[in-house]
Amino acid sequence: MENGGSRQATMAELQEVQITEEKPLLPGQTPEVAKTHSVETPYGSVTFTVYGTPKPKRPAILTYHDVGLNYKSCFQPLFQFGDMQEIIQNFVRVHVDAPGMEEGAPVFPLGYQYPSLDQLADMIPCILQYLNFSSVIGIGVGAGAYVLSRYALSHPDTVEGLVLINIDPNAKGWMDWAAHKLTGLTSSIAEMILGHLFSQEELSGNSELIQKYRNIITHAPNLANIELYWNSYNNRRDLNFERGGDVTLKCPVMLVVGDQAPHEDAVVECNSKLDPTQTSFLKMADSGGQPQLTQPGKLTEAFKYFLQGMGYMASSCMTRLSRSRTASLTSAASIDGNRSRSRTLSQSSESGTLPSGPPGHTMEVSC
Ligand code: BEZ
């Protein structure tokens, strides 16, 4: 348990730092205050930022970002997307920064033992206890998707739903390690992480987005910390999902991956291992490796359907466009706040056809 000098913290020792941030406003929006907190956990301190106020009888939305990013660089384009506002105004949001990834984080001392992904997952109960939140809907990308899945496996009663983007639930095999070592001989850490985040096609296309993220990562003052998170990701254990087995996600899950994204095969395999009545799979066209950055509109629409399937969004909240797209479909969505029994949401983005599932429980997101 000893980790970088950290030790078991009592609640009385939890520390709080409050920073009020400026958040650019969208037309017609009222300002929302973001508060950043830090709490001590058995594995060191963790920082998270809370937007909005808790809504009675609703879970918090909790996000966990991927390697090379922090909550802002990973999720800001999605959470500040126009159509997303009508969704998130109904939820308090908790955006976790993995240790050492928060803005202005000092570089960890040499020899600091960075938490494993399992230990990062074990920090989440400290955050929820501090905030007095009892349940969450998680949105995680890459390493963050793994962390949230691990948390959901150990605390299934507190996770109402999961949106997992680019999840790879498998530990690296020896072939992956060999490839990783070879790449490491010729590439910098920053380039390796960029190769994890984006497709080769995107990287060679060198769009403005790629230039921006290459610049952020290459010049990150906390690059040494990022490398530690990267190492933890590469040393992850197998999540051992097993369809019909004991190790499985019990809540509704929306798996998302860009077509031709680096993790496409891993997400497809993950889909095959999860409970099909609880899992929807969204392969997004034209989205590259980071759909939440490149296709916030499509992801917002899919997220809205996902929440509807859980009974959290009244169909009257759907945009006219969304309603017309689903006009021929029936939906399991129920009245806002009155959660439906069915939690199944199936989506197909590629062929436009709908996967099999119980009638009345199927929705489509056209991508
Ligand atoms: C939010 O409103 O939850 C949010 C705003 C900015 C960045 C990330 C999230």
TrEMBL record:
Record-linked Pfam families: Ndr
InterPro entries found in the cross-reference section: AB_hydrolase_fold, NDRG
Region (Disordered): 330-367
Domain of life of the native organism: Eukaryota
Keyword annotations: Cytoplasm, Developmental protein, Differentiation, Neurogenesis, Wnt signaling pathway
SUPFAM superfamilies the record matches: alpha/beta-Hydrolases
A cellular component annotation (GO) from this entry: growth cone
Compartments where found: Cell projection, Growth cone; Cytoplasm
Main location: other
GO biological process: cell differentiation; nervous system development; Wnt signaling pathway
Family of this protein: Belongs to the NDRG family.
Function noted in UniProt: Contributes to the regulation of the Wnt signaling pathway. Down-regulates CTNNB1-mediated transcriptional activation of target genes, such as CCND1, and may thereby act as tumor suppressor. May be involved in dendritic cell and neuron differentiation. Contributes to the regulation of the Wnt signaling pathway. Down-regulates CTNNB1-mediated transcriptional activation of target genes. May be involved in neuron differentiation.
Protein name: Protein NDRG2
Organism: Catagonus wagneri (Chacoan peccary)
